[in-house]
Design brief:
Shape: globular
Strand order of the largest sheet: 1-2-3-5-4
Helix content: 25-40%
CATH superfamily of the largest domain: Transferase(Phosphotransferase) domain 1
Order of helices and strands: HEEEHEEEHEEHHHHHHHHEEEEEEE
Number of helices: 11
CATH topology of the largest domain: Transferase(Phosphotransferase), domain 1
Radius of gyration: 24 Å
Number of strands: 15
Oligomer: single chain
Largest sheet: 5 strands, antiparallel
Strand content: 15-25%
CATH class of the largest domain: Mainly Alpha
Number of domains: 3
């Protein structure tokens, strides 16, 4: 058993002592009472990562170490552009730890109110991540501002899937004193004895986040699990329009419904909640559901090939055929495993190089012809929009936004975004070899009635 007094006087030294052979710590990003996050370099892969350590206190021992390993492995299988991928995980004498993608934007702040359109963008990104995880059989169960991060491409990404449950769930939280509002994201059903959080619990937490992004204030401001129960019992659910009159009434009503006491009174899914923020149409999740569960006794989720599933109607095979023929639309999800490859988006396969020509044997050499030139490096494009939309490039459907890491040949391309009930958005881009172009602030305008 590791006592708290042995760790907190100098957690950085303990990390260097126990994990220094695996990671070179660059600097501390965050120090909490029980957990810390470091910017580090993986010794084996040389990739820059975020290293999170959780102190092994009394309430984390002993079975939770095994549970933690299992949940970290499940989190590492989640493959989505809005999820912070887990690279490695383990247990040392003083810590439970795991490394993950480093998101330089840091946590999305709830202190300053967001513009309505900015809030909708963030919530749709988070909802896409949660809905994909739910379809894969995983519940986050601890969504809070510190777990919502911004990366260098402008995308919002969610981290720490299932970690709280692996550490003992809400029962562990009852032994800890928290700052005001830190527990507001815990759904009512999670506070019931032996309560197992489901997707509706994540929707509740997302509703709390949406409220705070708009109001800049906590919903309840509870300091403990008991205080949270008491405040919910005695206080009425706050109305975000009391602080933000500019919030449309349908949006405020969607937040109120997501914060319903009973899970059955909330939306059927987080995707439906996100859709309600913007109207009758909302984000469509194209990743197929998997009949798996994150329960310890259930079979592990099937490990799919790490690739972006753009369509359930066979678009992916078609895209690969197109790639082989001309445009190199060969998508694969960012490895984000310890390989040192790029940390975000989709990493398409490199275009095939032209075979070298032996000018001593080629007939064309006698005529003075030069060997065929190698193809220019492709450009990379990131496109996101509010609301989501179908992206067409040069008249060919690529998939639904957000589209990350799209490889295109250098030159002129026409981009077109289409969503039912909204005016199409078009623009022409001229891409240079090796260029990375990020188009992340497209807001589609609703069609007006004739």
């Amino acid at each position: 058993m590791i006592e708290e007094a042995r760790i907190h006087p100098d957690p950085d030294a303990a990390v260097q002592r126990e994990l220094g052979h695996l990671f070179g710590v660059i600097r501390a990003l965050h120090h909490g009472r029980y957990a810390s996050v470091y910017l580090a370099r993986d010794v084996e892969s040389r990739a820059t990562v975020a290293l999170k350590t959780i102190v092994r206190l009394r309430f984390l021992e002993p079975a939770n170490a095994t549970r933690f390993r299992r949940q970290a492995a499940a989190a590492a299988r989640l493959d989505h552009p809005h999820i912070v991928s887990v690279h490695r995980h383990g247990v040392s004498p003083s810590f439970l730890w795991y490394s993950m993608d480093y998101c330089p934007g840091g946590p999305l702040s709830t202190v300053q109110p967001m513009a309505v359109i900015e809030c909708v963008t963030a919530v749709q990104h988070i909802a896409n991540a949660l809905d994909y995880a739910h379809r894969s059989g995983t519940v986050h169960a601890d969504l809070r501002p510190f777990n919502v991060l911004g990366d260098e491409s402008g995308l919002i990404r969610v981290s720490d899937f299932g970690i709280l449950r692996a550490l003992g769930g809400v029962a562990a939280l009852k032994t800890v004193q928290y700052p005001p509002g830190a527990l507001d994201y815990i759904a009512p059903e999670q506070l019931v004895k032996d309560g197992v959080p489901g997707p509706a619990a994540d929707q509740y937490a997302l509703g709390v986040l949406t409220y705070e992004y708009l109001a800049g204030l906590p919903v309840f401001g509870a300091t403990s699990a008991e205080d949270l129960v008491a405040r919910r019992r005695t206080g009425s659910l706050p109305d975000v329009t009391a602080f933000r009159p500019d919030v449309p009434s349908p949006m405020a009503e969607a937040v109120r419904r997501a914060l319903s006491e009973a899970p059955g009174d909330r939306f059927a899914s987080v995707a439906e909640f996100a859709a309600a923020l913007t109207g009758p149409t909302g984000p469509v999740v194209l990743w197929p559901a998997e009949a798996t569960s994150d329960d310890d006794d259930a079979p592990s989720p099937v490990l799919r090939p790490r690739g972006r599933h753009w369509s359930i109607m066979g678009v992916v095979p078609a895209l690969f055929l197109v790639a082989a023929a001309s445009l190199w639309f060969a998508f694969s999800t960012t490895s984000r495993l310890p390989t040192g490859r790029p940390e975000t988006g989709l990493v398409p396969a490199a275009p095939p190089e032209q075979p070298s020509i032996d000018v001593t044997r080629a007939p064309a050499a006698a005529a003075g012809r030069l060997p065929a030139p190698r193809p220019l490096p492709s450009a990379q494009v990131v496109v996101s929009s509010v609301p989501w939309a179908e992206l067409y490039v040069d008249g060919r459907l690529v998939g639904n936004t957000p589209v990350v890491g799209l490889r295109l040949p250098p030159g002129r391309h026409r981009l077109r975004l289409v969503q039912l009930g909204f005016q199409p958005h078009e623009e022409v881009v001229n891409l240079a070899p090796g260029q990375t172009l990020k188009i992340t602030r497209i807001v589609l305008q609703q069609e007006t009635a004739p």
